[in-house]
Amino acid sequence: MRPILCASPKHRTSRRTGSTLLDVALGASLLTLLLIPSMHLMSQSEKNAQRSSLRQRLLIEADRIMHAQRVAMRDRATLDDAFGAPREELVKLSVDSMSWCLGRTTIVPEPTIGTKSTPLVTIKVDVWHDANGNAEIDADEVVQSLRTQQGQW
Question: Does the model's pTM come out above 0.85?
Answer without folding.
Answer: no
